[in-house]
Design goal:
With 286 residues, this protein is an all-alpha fold. It is built from eleven helices and two strands. Strands 1-2 form a two-stranded antiparallel ribbon. One of its GO terms (molecular function) is transmembrane transporter activity.
Length: 286
């Protein structure tokens, strides 16, 4: 029984990382109606920038503070210089541009760091395990659960208790409404896109000590993020949270019950949700 409880706790940690990955994608879609296939590239950059900083002898904690700011700034520049000019284009063009950006980032990573993965050490403070009854659990994974829970609360406050959050919620209903209120719509777009890139980078930094950094992790992350967003509902903050936790727990528990089919069960869970709720658990029609 302990093994399933352990895997459920492990799934919560993985699910919170999935939430960080998906929430930016979901918010960007809710405001801009723009599906960003380059989102996984920010996760990839987060992991590799963390790896590079630890390779320079800098601390993991400094990487956790600095890397999301750097990647968020790159996301802001990407939106301002490239994506802003294609919003009015057909969705097929959105896909071509963002997929091209993702592939370009992936190839640049391979040129800089090589095609093979690299490991990132767990910070000294979080090495070892915690023993609780008959359960032994790594300290680092407990930190990931706690840290991402605090981040989720901060993001919730930003979206629910600040002027930016009010503008994002209003924009998810009608961007014209935001313009009529006298707000700079394009500035809000840039800030939201930067926030999405930064949260994906945080997920990359946190994932690096658990799985290392490798050039193709962005593609995998993008696939999982889309599954979480579809399950939770496009444009929903709490949908991304619930969807991330659901997918994380299903994947983790099934890796014990049926290791070969753990990833398959993610898609089965998504199909089951869509059969019952075609717009996702907390999604809205239209």
């Amino acid at each position: 029984m302990n093994i399933y409880l352990l895997q459920a706790i492990n799934g919560i940690g993985i699910g919170m990382l999935y939430f960080l990955l998906a929430v930016g994608l979901s918010i960007v879609f809710g405001l801009l109606r723009f599906v960003n296939f380059a989102h996984g590239a920010f996760y990839l950059l987060g992991a590799y920038f963390c790896y590079q900083m630890t390779r320079w002898g800098l601390s993991f904690w400094l990487a956790l503070a600095v890397v999301p700011l750097v990647v968020g700034a790159l996301g802001w520049l990407t939106e301002k210089l490239v994506l802003r000019h294609v919003y009015a284009s057909p969705h097929e063009f959105h896909i071509l541009v963002t997929v091209g950006l993702a592939l370009a980032v992936q190839e640049l990573v391979i040129l800089q760091w090589g095609p093979l993965g690299d490991s990132v050490p767990v910070p000294d403070l979080l090495q070892g395990v915690v023993m609780w009854g008959g359960i032994v659990y790594p300290k680092y994974r407990l930190f990931v659960i706690g840290f991402t829970a605090v981040l989720a609360l901060i993001l919730w406050y930003v979206l629910e208790g600040t002027r930016l959050g009010s503008a994002v919620r209003a924009g998810s209903e009608s961007t014209e409404m935001v313009s009529l209120l006298g707000l700079n719509v394009f500035r809000i777009f840039s800030l939201v896109f930067a926030l999405g890139a930064a949260t994906a980078a945080i997920a990359g930094v946190l994932a690096a000590p658990m799985r290392g950094a490798e050039p193709f992790m962005g593609i995998e992350a993008l696939g999982v993020a889309f599954i979480v967003v579809v399950v939770g509902g496009m444009g929903s903050f709490f949908g991304a949270l619930i969807g991330g936790l659901l997918i994380g727990v299903v994947q983790s528990v099934m890796s014990t019950v049926w290791p070969e089919g753990a990833r398959l069960m993610i898609y089965i869970a998504m199909a089951a949700v869509l059969l019952l709720r075609p717009h996702g658990l907390l999604g809205r029609k239209g």
